[in-house]
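Please produce the structure of this protein holding zinc ion.
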Amino acid sequence: MTVAWAKPPGDVAIQFAHNPAIPSAGTLVGERLYVNPDFIQRIGWTFSAGRGQMAVNGEGRNLRLPTKEIQGRPCIDILEAARLIGGKAEWSPDRKLVAIHGVVRSVEATDSTVRIDTTIGAKATAFRISDPPRLVVDITGVEVDLERLQPLPPNHRIGQFNANTVRYVIEAPDMARVKVPTFTKGRTILFSLTQFETKPAKAAPSPSSEPIQIRAVSLGDDGTAQAKLMVGFEGASGQRPSARYEGPTRIVLTLPNAVAPAGLEVRDNSSIVKSAAIRLNGPTSVSVVLETVRPLSFTVGQQGEVAYLKLRAPLFGGLAGRLIVVDAGHGGHDSGAKGGGTLEKANALDTAKRLAAELAEAGASVILTRDDDTFVTLNERPAVANRAGADLFISCHFNSNTVANSRSGTIIFYHRDDPEGKLLAECVRSVVAKRSDLPDLGTWSDQRIYQSGFAVLRGAEMPGVLLELGFINHATDRSKITDPAWRQAMAESVVEALRIYFSNGQ
Ligand SMILES: [Zn+2]
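Below is the modeled complex.
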């Protein structure tokens, strides 16, 4: 698909940083989005137009940009300007709106002050919440790349709250009486954690820190593809149990702040769990380690004085006859990430086609969301899988971050806390980690990037994963990504992972 002239004057709305969207603000010409001097002034930038170019001062930076005359006025490409000042452009699926965000450049935090610098001026608001006492600062008009930030003090955290807002939270008893800061719009957000209200609020009582006593551990199933692990205890730790994979057929349930009597055994009456053992992680932390006969998804919970793990086998019986939708990320005018002259969209398409061919070879039915260089909206991609009643959805991407050569490795994403997606991701991770020859950055919930997760995974009604197979702006990763033999190995790795996922343990 080629993008033709948009109808002048502009038919693209632009939402710049924290400002509301301005309708008909830009004119799309090919891959460039032109704005006129009115728009430049409206976002608070200054400029002087010369012959064929414009000097622009925006966000503390001086830029010199070529101009294009549209309706008798000199216009500049706002996407290029945004890129030069360290902004990020996000298109809506129908390309009628582009949102331009700043990026968190750095965070310097101590117990007494926090300073957050952004590439484009942001709007910040703060408020307090209790139980436990926290100070929350919401910064609108920016995105954050957690990988490039310095470590924060242990009681501070930062994350992408929604597409347009970054949330910074400090959790400490003092936050019950800290003075709530106010901010002016700008590229620096600076506040104190040691200025207090004159009338202190009452501190919340701290929960009991007495460890719980584990009494009995039992495991049973109903003869089907489900099982339940139950850990009975006495006491109230105030800390929830958690569980994670250590490989597709090993699940570890951990009870923090717990003690277990010596020689405690697991009463095991399950046919889908091979072995269950107690592991002590320290004086007051106890785990139950399960080896399962085939990959199982899990959900962890607690009811009264019982912590539990519900286990479930996915569809099993092999890969043959399964319907898999393979999604090549980006396409058409959306190139995705780029680095060293190579585009994410092209490598994603090639990898997806190789994966489709390998899956077909293994007897599965495959649908590709695109099989050439076309643009497909984010909503349409999972819709293809939903309409077809697919068993799995697999989206192929390559990563990039704001600083070239700063980050290397593979990440397998699943949606929010979907147990099936998490299991599928663990299966893929286990094989890709062995065969990619790149650092294994693990499986990640897509909530680590956006509160609502990724649109393509959110929309899929079946288990899905999004593969980020290396960083295209890292030289080491790129040397692999651009190697057809490596892409073939990645396609074969995913097929092997799906064989594991669908295996019945025989
Ligand atoms: Zn991508």
